[in-house]
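Run: sequence + NAP -> complex structure.
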Amino acid sequence: MARLALITGGSRGLGAAFVAQLQAEGWEVVEFSRAAPHACSVKVDLGALAASGPVLDAKLAELAARDWDEVLAVLNAATLAPIGPTARKPPAEVLGNLDLNLKAPVLFAALFVKHFQRHAARKLLANISSGAALKGYAGWSLYCAAKAGLENHVRSIALEQAGEAHPVLAVNVDPGVMDTEMQAAIRATGIDDFPAVERFHGLQAAGMLRAPETVAVIILGELARVTEGGGRIDTATHR
Ligand SMILES: NC(=O)c1ccc[n+]([C@@H]2O[C@H](COP(=O)([O-])OP(=O)(O)OC[C@H]3O[C@@H](n4cnc5c(N)ncnc54)[C@H](OP(=O)(O)O)[C@@H]3O)[C@@H](O)[C@H]2O)c1
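>> structure
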């Protein structure tokens, strides 16, 4: 079985756990990040779209020229920064958040569909979302906007794909809270920028943050069972 997995933001956290688990299961993995720590990494700043777009286009074209039995693309790279009301943040940081969290995964998904549409392989596009897609958080307005927008974009891709001869199954996934650098960044934020910060200190103190390795195994198990696009997989309650 020739199985290809494309993972954005696989240098650490949940993405790195996906890379390790998928490689252990025999998948060929290609990972996209700035740190690019793996032999399978493509070094790219997904927030710098003018430069990263052609890199992604060329890499996906190269991979799509080969035969595959199964192809998985995981839209995982994201940032909370800048945390705090946007009125207090530099415009470049405000727009930079949306470049990485919304525009980059929209572009990645478009290129994935473009290059792999003709493949008869089982094809899955998984957007790693968040509870922040479904409700607002003071201080996370950009992250909330991007996650909500991307979830609905992915739902729309699923509808578009339903009529294709070889559809891409597009789904959203809520991983729940995990013990990663993203959570450390939340706890390091002052209450002025993030009024709910104490709750996140409490989640860590209560041992509620799951290891990303645990979550990656749960998510990959759920993705293996997907038979149609458009769904929202909530792994937050899996314990
Ligand atoms: N942690 C949680 O509790 C939690 C909860 C709900 C949802 N999520 C979601 O789960 C996913 C993974 O989160 P995580 O906690 O594992 O985050 P993380 O530890 O902060 O890792 C983020 C990943 O994104 C990559 N990334 C960030 N900026 C990038 C850029 N400009 N270009 C390319 N890659 C970039 C990072 O790689 P480089 O820095 O090397 O570029 C890194 O590999 C995210 O979508 C997040 O929104 C997390």
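>> summary
Strands lie at 3-8, 28-33, 41-43, 70-75, 122-128, 168-174, 232-234. The helical segments are 13-24, 49-64, 91-116, 141-161, 181-187, 197-205, 212-224.
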